[in-house]
Write a structure and sequence with these properties.
40% of the residues lie in helices and 18% in strands. With 289 residues, the protein is of the alpha/beta class. α1 (14-23) crosses α7 and α9 (221-243) packs across α10.
């Protein structure tokens, strides 16, 4: 079984890492007491699970000392085990807890004979957690997330566990401006400047997917120029959206009625990008009609 064990300091991004792995198809378990790790893996193997991601934190202080031996045993049994220890500076952690207004997991614990009214401060909790996790910090790869955005951390986790990057899906959507711009559009292109087939009575009842309309617009130099400009724009910026961990990019093309020019442009762009990208096309007004 392929196992990714995620541990480290609270607030350093363990939940972000676990979510990345869950989205990649890993069976995920959060906040597992380390003493239960061997039995959990045994159960998952029996059930045929091939990939698992498990988060372990400092709240199970007494069983943390057994974690190195458990990892060694799992590897000896033939499992592919990767361990990630996420950490950050105390300053960064304090800022994150302040932004989210969440309490530290250890803030709810009481030491023996400790006065409930005098619970530990956030910094005291962080120091306590560092002390508890000190013995396992070098168990795997240490990742300092102090200066990492959540999005950058997601990209790093994907690379570190060799997850194949999910392909970005390009949505091309035609629409009518008179009925409003699609709310989910990332880019909106106005194609009303090109000649309108609507004014040809023979073409009026047709759509941009019908050959007579296609032939009409193919013969318009302005339509070809606009198509090339939009194509070049998307082609230029698409790699940047891929590296930004986007799953979808919606390109909306609008004309007056959403029947001819926008449909034609969406179909032409979809056909071009479908050669190299995952593409979905939708015609909003035709779906409504």
């Amino acid at each position: 079984m392929r196992i990714v064990l995620i541990t480290g300091i609270s607030g350093s991004g363990k939940s972000v890492a676990l979510n990345v792995l869950e989205d990649a198809g890993y069976y995920c378990v959060d906040n597992l007491p380390p003493a239960l790790l061997p039995s959990l893996i045994g159960t998952l193997v029996e059930e045929g699970v091939e990939r698992a991601a498990i988060s372990v934190d400092a709240r199970s202080a007494e069983s943390l000392t057994a974690l190195p031996a458990s990892v060694t045993k799992l590897r000896a049994d033939g499992h592919d085990v990767k361990v990630m220890f996420l950490t950050a500076t105390t300053h960064s952690l304090v800022a994150r807890f302040s932004e989210t207004r969440r309490s530290h997991p250890l803030s709810h614990e009481l030491r023996p004979n400790e006065n409930p009214a005098g619970r530990r401060t956030l910094i005291e909790c962080i120091m306590e957690e560092r002390e508890r996790l000190g013995a396992i910090e070098k168990l795997g790869l240490v990742i300092d997330t102090s200066e990492l955005s959540a999005n950058k951390l997601r990209a790093w986790i994907k690379e570190l566990v060799e997850i194949e990057r999910a392909p970005l899906t390009l949505f091309f959507e035609s629409f009518a401006f008179k009925l409003g711009v699609p709310l989910d559009a990332d880019f909106v292109f106005d194609v009303r400047a090109i000649p309108n087939p609507y004014y040809d009575l023979a073409l009026r009842p047709l759509t941009g997917m019908d050959q007579p309309v296609i032939d009409f617009l193919d013969a318009q130099p302005m339509a070809a120029d606009m198509l090339e400009d939009i194509r070049a724009f998307i082609e230029k910026w698409l790699p940047r959206f891929k590296t930004d961990n986007r799953s979808y990019l919606t390109v909306a093309l609008g004309c007056t009625g959403g029947q001819h020019r926008s449909v034609y442009m969406a179909e032409r762009l979809a056909a071009y990008f479908n050669k190299s990208e995952r593409v979905i096309i939708r015609h909003r007004e035709q779906a409504q009609g």
